[in-house]
Amino acid sequence: MAGANSNIQIADLDFNKIKTNLKTFLQSQAILQDYNYEGSALSTLLDILAYNTQYNAYYLNMVANEMFLDSALQRASVVSHAKLLNYTPKSAIAPTAIINLAVNSVSQSSLTLPKFTTFLSEAIDGVNYNFVTTDSYTVNTSNGSVLFANVPLKQGIPTTVSYTVDNITNPTYTFEIPDADVDTTALQVIVQQSSANAASDVYTLATNYLSLTNDSKVFFLQESTNGNFEIYFGDNILGKQLTNGNIVNISYIITSGTASYGANNFVLMDTIAGYSSTSISPVSSATEGSEKETISSIKFQAPKSYGAQNRAVTKDDYITLIQKNQFVPLDAVNVWGGEDMESPEYGTVYVAVKPKGSYSLTEAQKASLINDVIKPVSVITVTPRIVDIDYVYLLLSADILYDSKKTTKTSSEISNLVKNGIQTFCETNLNTFNSTFVIGNLIQYVQVLDPSIIAADFDLFLQKRLIPSLRSTQTYTVNFGNALEKGTGKNALTITPSFSQYDSTGSFYENVFFEEAPDSTTNIDYVTLSSGGTGYVSPTVTISGDGVGATATAEVVNGIITAITVVSGGAGYTQAIAVITDPEGSGAIATPVLRGNYGNLRTYYFVNGVKNILTGGGTNHTDDAGSVDYTNGIVTLSNFTPTALAGTDGILRVTGYSASRIVSSSFSRIITLDTNDAAAITVNVTAK
User: Fold this and answer.
1) Would the CA dihedral through 177, 84, 332, 676 be positive or negative?
2) What is the mean pLDDT of residues 415-437?
3) What is the pTM of this model?
4) Using CA atoms, how far apart are residues 138 and 200, in angstroms rounded to an integer?
5) Which of 33, 126, 144, 671 is 20 to 30 A from 497 in CA distance terms?
C-alpha cells in the first residue's frame, strides 16, 4: 500500500489534474496498467470521481474561509465573527431634514406635534419620499399661532410590530425586526406588562455593559443570519429579564437610505389636532443618511472596535469608538490631544467629525456624541471637546491641450471628460483628515483620461467661507493654513459678494466691495537697526528709493539710537535705503524693510460708474478695512459691520491664489471640492 499511495498526488485541485492523478494511480497497479482509460466506460467513472473530489475540495475550502473574519465572504459569517468582537453592524440611517412648521388660527393654549407625523417631500429624481417626526413636540400658542421651530424629519415609513413573550416557544427572548431597511437609530422599544395590564416601560439600547444591573431596562441589538436585525433582553444579571405574557412593542421607520438626499420642500400630510392652516419653511435639506454597513466595512471596523475594548485612552480608541456610534453616520473623524495645540491645553482631547452627506454637525449631534458615545468610556480627568471642521475649498482652473487627430471627441466632450475626472480624483483623495492634494498627481491623472490629451496645467485657488454677523461690528480672521501668492487680475485676492453698510457718520452704502489696496505691498513696513551709533542728539532719518512718501523718526537714549519708528510707509518702493544724519552723532546703521509679504484691504463703492474709496488705502493705513499675511495665509477683516450680503446664502467667500502646488490638511482642517459650486472647476480646452 505504501508504494501505491506514493502515486497519489493530493495537492492539485484542478479537475483535469485530479483525473490525471487518478489515472496515474490506476496505471501504477499491475492489474490495470494496460487498460484503455480514454476509450472505455471507466473514463466516465473517473470523471465522476474527479468532479466529486473537486466539489468537496472547493466546499471544504469555502467552509474554512468562512471560519475567519478576514477570509469570510458570506455576510452571516462576517456578522457572526464581528459579534464575538462585540461589534454590531450599522443599519441604514435615514437622511434628516430640518423645518419650521407654523400652525395658524389655534384656539387652545398649546399644541403638540405628534410622533410619526407624516410629510411628503418634493420629487427627487422623480420620486416623492415619506418623511416623519420621530419625537413629539409641545409648544405654547402665541397670538393664535404655534411655531414648531427646527423640527427634524427623518425619511422613512413608520412601522410597529408586537410580540408576546413565551419562554416555551422563544426561550432566548429574541425578537426579529422583519424589515431589512430599518433605521435602528430611530428604534423605540416599549414593554407592556400584559394584555390585561396596560402599564409599560420604555427600554433603551444597552451601550455600557459595566453599568448594567439586574433591573436595568435595556435591550440588546444584533444582526441575524438572514440579514435582519433582532433585539433581545437581559437575564436578570445584565439587564432585566422579561416574563411570560409581557408584550414587546417595537416601533421604527423603514428608510430608503441616501436616495432622498437634497429634499428641502415638504407638504404636511396630516392635520395637527384638527388644524389645517399650516405653513412650512425649510431650514436645511435632507442629509446625513447612509446605507446599511457593508461587509468590507464590518471587517475593517470590528477588530478596531475590539481593540478599543470600549474604553477611550489613546487617539485610535477615540476614533474607533466614534466611528462605531449608531447615532450619527460619519465620513471622517480626527482626534488630537490638547498638548499638540500651539498653546498647549492639557487634559483636553479635541474631536473633529465630518458627518456623512453634510459639512457640519448640529448642536444636538455634538451633544449626543459627547454624552452618549465619548464620556461614558473616556478617562474621567480628560475633557472631550468637539470642534467644527475648518474647510478649505479648492477652485481649479484647468488648461488642456489635446490632439484632435487622435480622437473623435469634440472639445466640449474633452472638457466634460476632464471635469468629471477632476471630480473623481478629488472625491477619492480629499474630504478626509490628514489628506494631501498635489497638483502633479492631478495632472498625471488627467493626462491618461484620453490618449488625445497632450498636456494639462492648473491654476489652484483656495477659498474660505464665513457667515458674518449682520449689524454687529466684529473682526474676522480667516486662516488658509497655506501660503498665498500676491497676484493681480484673475489671480488677485477676492472677497465676495458685495455688502451694504453704514459708515461712521451714519451714511448708508448699498453695494460695497473689498479689494487689496494697490500700494499696500510696496510701502516700508519697518526699519531694522544694526547699530545704534553714539553721540546722537536730534537725528533725522531720511528714506530714499524708487518710491515716495516714506518717513520715520529715531528714538535716542544716552546718545544711542535705540529704535526707529515708521511714521508713513509711503508707496511704490521696490528698494530703499535709510540715511541717519545728526551734527553730533555717528555710526548708526539702519535698513528699511519693504512690506512685501503683507497687504492691506480697503472698501469701495461706485457712483455713476466711478469708484469711490470708502475705507482704507491711505499711506499710514490707520483706517484699513483689513490686512493680508501672504506668508502665513491669514486674511483679517477689521471692524466689519455689514447690514446685508448680496445673494441668498449669507456666506462671505475669501479666495486667494495658492503659493504652493501642494496643499495639506491638519488637525480639524479638511480640503474639499464643492461640486455644487459652478465656479469650483473651470476647464479651458485648446485643440492642436
Assistant:
1) negative
2) 91
3) 0.64
4) 22
5) 671
